[in-house]
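All the exercises in this workshop are built on plain-text protein records. A record pairs a protein's sequence with a compact description of its fold. The structure tokens are whole numbers drawn from a learned vocabulary of backbone shapes. Once this layout is familiar, the rest of the handout is easier to follow. An example says more than a description, so a record of this kind follows.
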Amino acid sequence: MFENLDAILLARIQFAFTIAFHFLFPAFTIGLASYLAVLNGLYLRTNNQKFLTLFNFWVKIFAVTFAMGVVSGITMSYQFGTNWSVFSDRAGPVIGPLMAYEVLTAFFLEAGFLGIMLFGRSRVGAGLHMFACTMVAFGTALSATWILSVNSWMHTPQGFAIAANGQFVPVNWLEIIFNPSFPYRLAHTLTAAYLTTAFIIGGVGAWHLLKCHGTDRQHEGVKTMFSMAMWMAVIVAPLQIFLGDLHGLNTLEYQPQKVMAMEGHYESHPHGAPLYLFGIPNEAEQRLDYAIAIPKASSLILKHDLNAPLDGLDTIPMDERPPVAIVFWSFRIMVGIGFLMLFVGLWSLWARFRGKLYSSRWLHRAALLMGPSGLVAVLAGWITTEVGRQPYTIWGLMRTSESASPLAAPAVGASLLAFIIVYFFVFGAGVFYLLRLMKAGPKLGEEGMADADGPIRTSGTTPAQQTSAQDDPTTRKVEG
């Protein structure tokens, strides 16, 4: 079945498939953890039941999403040893410690406080529970920081030397961690996660606003949920566009052929480059067919000068050019969604100003439609970044063709097929359950994650016997 296919291509598809699944969950939990910390803080400050209701509603969704993110991340990491062992051997001295730091400082932090966040409200006191919520939120962001440092180093490597055996060995850890693209990629990705969460929450709120009317018990909590999400959209969407522009300028400096592919610039433009809004990349002829362009706008955006010259892919050797079509379209999907997010945020601001934030059904329909848009945008952004790095795994130093394990195509293909089948069943069921939780909506007075009445006795007592004993008035009197 896979004998006539390329083993390296199959390994790339497998990694892309597994990381695409994994990336969706942290993109949501990073923002959701911070949202939960804010809700808990507002509840403690105001003692308003609606904030506790929203916390109890979203914390269940967070727990399920967090679990799926952990499981998908573990399976993904094994591919470094199975499909990409040459890359792991050569780059391991640099990326290995950074990934270990992520586990030690971030994952243990969020996982350690997660239990207190879920079950500890009535057991550890309000202060410690709030601290646990804050640590979970901090841990998710710190986890992303380490992973993005690893990824950014692969795009803009520095602070290393190459040993006699071909391994990349660290020389300066500060230069490795804080490599040139890291600050921009970190800011852009974290902001994308917060924006993704805002639109998911706004979509859920819009769904229930479209369903509930007047005296519905969900109404107060739903309105608060929707309002907070739209405030986040208004503030973060323009910030994300600004950070994206900075990230693009950094990419132009260190990975110019990636930007050439993003812009569809097959040819150089010595007197100002156009901004192509639409076109069909023609790899065979090395041109953009059916192009719709704004003259010189690309030079204005990238160089802040209408007449600034921009090099094209005709200045790059053929074997160092990224696949243009994928990068060109994924970039436009990401940017297009970003501007749609900004439009919805401004629309909500106008509706809020007119007093129609909770009654504008067209706004609610738009917000519902945009609910999963952040997930699509982060995947499109990741595809732009990673496919645009080709043909390298470590930019300019190690090619993808040199990084793969010496495996035959059938072996890689079989594991890819197994991943596809298992992932769609397991994570499909998980996503279906999440959607059911979201559909149920927050109920005023809703209880959170249940605490047990006492320690579970397992020695010589079955759960049924224990329950019966706890319900027996005689037993309670003796225990008293």
